[in-house]
Automatic annotation (TrEMBL):
A Pfam short name: SBP_bac_5
Organism encoding this protein: Corynebacterium urealyticum
Entry GO MF terms: peptide transmembrane transporter activity
Top-level taxon of origin: Bacteria
Domain named Solute-binding protein family: residues: 19-364
Listed GO biological process terms: peptide transport
Official protein name in the record: Peptide ABC transporter
InterPro entries the UniProt entry points to: SBP_5 (IPR039424), SBP_5_dom (IPR000914)
Signal peptide: none
Length: 453
């Protein structure tokens, strides 16, 4: 989220809401010593425009008309489309700005500006491929990839773990804990616990912590659901090009059955919602509860009248067993309307394309940086939120389902671990984590009772 003065200073125009100026911190450098320049931000804008080449999903940039950047400059300007600009802070969020000098080198392209201005499809395709592969640790040595922030990736271990050490080019506050070892999905949790290698764990939701050797007397354990939502994103081609078809498909989904399925699977009390901007935990949510309920109305006759005999393909990452169970639940409920739902399991290496390989994609989304048609975010005034939720419901490009279940364990002597409701999750303040020789007096925000379904 900008402004982040270690990276860039942001100045919205006082006269024109649509105009925002950016000045990059002269001390901002990647871990390889290259300065952060406006080309890095221009690359993000290009990626948002060519999702077909970059496999990107950056809907907030639909509100941006132009980004003006001279190659290598430390200043640039963003101009929003008329009437937009209120959500400028949601541009260029964590993980969306990549080092353009590394991407262009890998793509063998002169510069982002040159590729954008020439429009040569081959150059753009190579940029898109490089954008996708640069941080793919199965295709790139992560220690060779420059990073921005307090940490750099020092090495990839023999068992796939990443070792994070201090970034010598970082001009901000030094990280409190060095090194940090990061283990990905599929790690042997009981073995890591036995070897005392777990300090902070963002676990698969159905994890049995006791069986994994993660004892409650040593760890703070939380199963609080997050503000992110398990959501269906619908293609703008094929069966869902028609607005009526999108509404009909939403009407066949049994939300109560979904909540039961996810809660039982995850040992976590999730909540169904029909809202896209306002999460269930927001202070304004109670005042929109009736609208949320109306958006989730199940209407089998309407669904049957519009889509009986149709087939809807739902893609999802097969590593997430929860998604498979949700698709099965949707399949069963929509069968009552004569709609056939086909599951399309995907892998990160072969994610396919929405609108070609599947008609809808099930994933977990934060409202931050999304809902590109809307001028409102959850901090907006109630009338603006009401208008935005109604407009997004009418367009129906997404179907919100339930809150995301979570399972988190933190050693009680590790301080400053705070879960984030957005896409960055636990890692957002990793540089402030610190392992103490005692249990701090203050209770960690992750130290909440385990909920049983």
């Amino acid at each position: 989220m900008l402004p982040n003065r270690d990276l860039v200073e942001v100045t919205p125009s006082e006269k024109h809401q649509e105009v925002v100026d950016y000045k990059i911190n002269p001390k901002a450098k990647y871990s390889d010593g290259h300065k952060v320049v406006c080309d890095d931000f221009q690359l993000t804008k290009l990626a948002s425009e060519r999702a077909d080449l970059f496999a990107s999903d950056l809907p907030i940039y639909h509100q941006v008309a132009e980004l003006y950047c001279a190659p290598g400059a430390d200043r640039f300007r963003v101009v929003f489309k008329p009437g937009f600009g209120q959500r400028y802070r949601e541009l260029f969020s964590a993980g969306t700005v990549l080092p353009a000098h590394s991407v262009t080198k890998r793509a063998e392209v002169e510069s982002v500006t040159a590729a954008t201005e020439s429009g040569v499809e081959e150059d753009l395709a190579r940029l898109g491929k490089a954008w996708q592969e640069l941080f793919d640790i199965t295709k790139t040595d992560p220690a060779s990839v420059p990073t921005f922030g307090p940490y750099r990736i020092a090495e990839k271990g023999e068992q796939g773990q990443l070792v994070l050490r201090e970034n010598p080019e970082w001009a901000g506050d030094s990280p409190a804990q060095v090194p940090i070892y990061v283990w990905g999905p599929g790690a042997d949790l009981p073995k890591l616990a036995e070897d005392h290698q777990i300090s902070v764990l963002d676990a698969p939701v159905k994890t049995d912590f006791a069986a994994a050797g993660i004892a409650s007397e040593k760890f703070s354990i939380s199963r609080q659901p997050s503000d992110r939502l398990d959501t269906l994103s619908l293609a703008d081609t094929g069966i869902f090009a028609d607005e009526g078809a999108r509404h009909a498909f939403s009407a066949c989904i049994d939300r109560k059955a979904l909540v039961k399925t996810v809660s039982e699977f995850s040992r976590n009390r999730v909540t169904a919602t029909g809202l896209r901007v306002v999460p269930p935990s927001a202070p304004t949510h109670p005042r929109l509860r009736a609208l949320s309920g109306a958006h989730m109305n199940r209407d089998i006759p309407a669904a049957k009248g519009a889509l009986e005999g149709a087939t809807v393909r739902i893609g999802y990452l097969k590593e997430h067993e929860r998604y498979a169970k949700q698709v099965e639940s949707i399949k069963n409920s929509c069968a009552e309307a004569g709609i056939t739902v086909e599951a399309v399991p995907l892998s990160a290496a072969n994610y396919g394309t929405l609108g070609e390989d599947y008609d809808a994609l099930l994933s977990t989304l934060s409202g931050f940086g999304r809902n590109g048609l809307s001028k409102a975010n959850q901090a907006s005034l109630l009338p603006e939120l009401l208008r935005a939720e109604k407009e997004l419901q009418q367009a129906m490009w997404t179907i919100p389902l339930t809150t995301e279940p979570r399972a988190i364990a933190t050693l009680k002597n590790v301080d400053n671990v705070v879960d984030n409701p957005g896409n960055v999750g636990l890692s957002w303040n990793m540089d402030r984590w610190v392992e103490l020789d005692h249990i701090p007096e203050t209770t960690s925000p992750t130290d909440t009772p385990t909920k049983k379904s």
